[in-house]
Amino acid sequence: MKFALVTGGSRGIGRAVCIRLSQMGYYILVNYKSNDAMARETLMDIKSGGGDAALMPFDVSSPDEVSNALAQWKKDHPGDYIEVLVNNAGIRRDALLVFMKTNEWSGVLETNLDSFFFLTREVLQDMLVNKYGRIINIVSLSGLKGLPGQVNYSAAKAGLIGATKALAQEVGKKKVTVNAVAPGYIRTDMTKELDEKVLKSTIPMNRFGKPEEVAEAVAFFASGGSSYITGEVLSVNGGLYT
Ligand code: NDP
Questions:
Q1: What is the pLDDT at residue 229?
Q2: Which of 64, 106, 149, 226 has the fewest CB atoms found within 10 Å of its own CB?
Q3: Which strands make up the sheet holding 233-236, listed edge to edge?
């Protein structure tokens, strides 16, 4: 059995990624923070498509929760390893910097960036030993160009892009690739209060994207077909750059 761990798999982009990777034959470990009902829906979607999965709730911003969950999984699965890690869980806490509270800054950095470190260090060693692994980080257009009102989020995602490029160079020799997918506006809970009718005029493709369209890019990086691509950032944004 091949295992893929997707953080934030209960909803939105993470759910679409879980379903898509399951279609590639992966047994999916569906992480989420607290939304059991939505996570069970992801599980049902995977199973109704002929795949299999298990729920793995923990807070990605807590080093203890991450290491306890992964240690338990390893104990229960001797000889197995997580071949694909998708660092997808993320939050927004938008505010202009002059009004930004300390917890809005630290919460976004911890969930969107620190989590990469906590998760990746747990699964990387087994990937290196097995000389195969795929690490895919979900970043954002905000991390590439910066967005006003999102200094915290832009900093976290830009940091994650830097981490992607640096780690790719550390582990390339061991056939572990590290890439990032940078969505633009995607229709999920995270963007539900945004006015698509107004914003779509700024997007060359004239619409928000669908989670499944991001999942396709993740599937490419997760596949054997991307074996000579690492440290790359692939935008999925309908042509929206500046
Ligand atoms: P959603 O808000 O729809 O879903 C967020 C997911 O992350 C949920 O599964 C949630 O779990 C999980 N999550 C949040 N915090 C934690 C935590 N501390 N520990 C574990 N899981 C957590 O987000 P999207 O699907 O829209 O976004 C997914 C990723 O894509 C994020 O990294 C986001 O920054 C990025 N992105 C999204 C864009 C968009 O337009 N939607 C654009 C660019 C990037 P639970 O259900 O339990 O709360």
A1: 98
A2: 64
A3: 53-57, 26-32, 2-6, 82-87, 133-138, 176-183, 233-236
Q: Could you report the per-residue pLDDT of 160-198, keeping only the tens digit for each?
A: 999 999 999 999 999 999 999 999 999 999 999 999 999
CA dist 228 and 174 (Å) reads 12
* Amino acid at site 117: F
Q: Is residue 101 part of a domain?
A: yes
Do the domain assignments include residue 242?
A: no
Q: How far is CA 196 from CA 154, 185, 186, 199, in A?
A: 21, 9, 10, 5
User: Probe ligand 1: pick from 7, 19, 58, 91, max atoms within 8 Å of CB?
Assistant: 91
Question: Residue 47 and residue 41: Cα distance in Å, rounded?
Answer: 10
pTM of this structure:
0.98
Domain that holds residue 179: 2-236
Position 242 pLDDT exceeds 80: no
